[in-house]
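sry for the spam today, last one i promise. struct tokens for design, 250 residues
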């Protein structure tokens, strides 16, 4: 196996300030190969600035569920002011870039990258949400779910929660956490909250060679107050609280 040193980022959610800090941090490590797991621009922050960085840097990206809704244009956009703000902010080139994203990607026949799961961009892989709350799936459960996937590592986003699970047979499944939104609440499939407890931007590196494959996780400080102020200016004090604290306050 060729030595692999891959940075995995996910769930930027238009947080240009966090993305810039993560890319600066990666430059310190000399990491050049990056995969972005989607939900890149949706949010009341800087969607256009974020899209432009990803395009200019030619960062390989897959499509997230909230990338998809920007393209799908639901009938009542007025019911979602944040979605309307994102669409107003994006240029035609940004929309074309989003529309061209694939739902999954394979890196060097070793890593399968997806947003939610390999088969659904709007579902959690490492967690299960029920009416009793959020539960981490076990290694044996994940091994069964991912039995059809032949790659040695599956990397996913969507839950914004950094976690690595080593599976039987030397494989692993990992979530790098969120670059741009460390906490949130959601009503689907049941009301729940996800939170990291700190406001830092998260990412991970996946390293592989003939001896095995493993993950390193990182938490990067950045100017989250600037992002929070933008969220407030765009009518989302809930986002501002999540950005400042990393807590969902549910």
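last one done:
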């Amino acid at each position: 196996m060729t030595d692999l040193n891959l940075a995995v980022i996910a769930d930027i959610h238009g947080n240009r300030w966090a993305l810039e800090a993560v890319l600066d941090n990666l430059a310190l490590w000399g990491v050049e190969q990056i995969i972005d797991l989607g939900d890149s621009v949706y949010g009341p922050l800087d969607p256009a600035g974020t899209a432009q960085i990803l395009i200019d840097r030619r960062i390989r990206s897959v499509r997230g569920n909230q990338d998809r809704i920007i393209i799908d244009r639901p009938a009542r956009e007025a019911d979602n002011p944040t979605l309307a703000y994102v669409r107003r902010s994006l240029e035609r080139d940004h929309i074309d870039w989003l529309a061209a994203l694939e739902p999954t990607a394979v890196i060097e026949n070793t890593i399968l990258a997806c947003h939610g799961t390999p088969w659904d961009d709007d579902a959690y892989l490492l967690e299960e949400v029920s009416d009793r709350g959020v539960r981490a799936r076990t290694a044996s459960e994940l091994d069964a779910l991912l039995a059809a996937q032949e790659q040695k590592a599956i990397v996913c986003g969507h839950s914004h929660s950094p976690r690595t699970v080593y599976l039987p047979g030397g494989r692993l499944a990992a979530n790098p956490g969120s670059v741009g939104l460390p906490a949130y609440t959601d009503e689907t499939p049941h009301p729940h909250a996800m939170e990291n407890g700190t406001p830092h931007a998260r990412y991970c590196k996946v390293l592989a060679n003939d001896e095995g494959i493993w993950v390193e996780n990182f938490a990067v400080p950045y100017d989250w107050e600037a992002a929070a102020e933008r969220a407030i200016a765009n009518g989302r004090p809930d986002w501002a609280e999540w950005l400042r604290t990393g807590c969902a306050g549910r």
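Residues 52 and 171 are 34 Å apart (CA to CA). ok im logging off now
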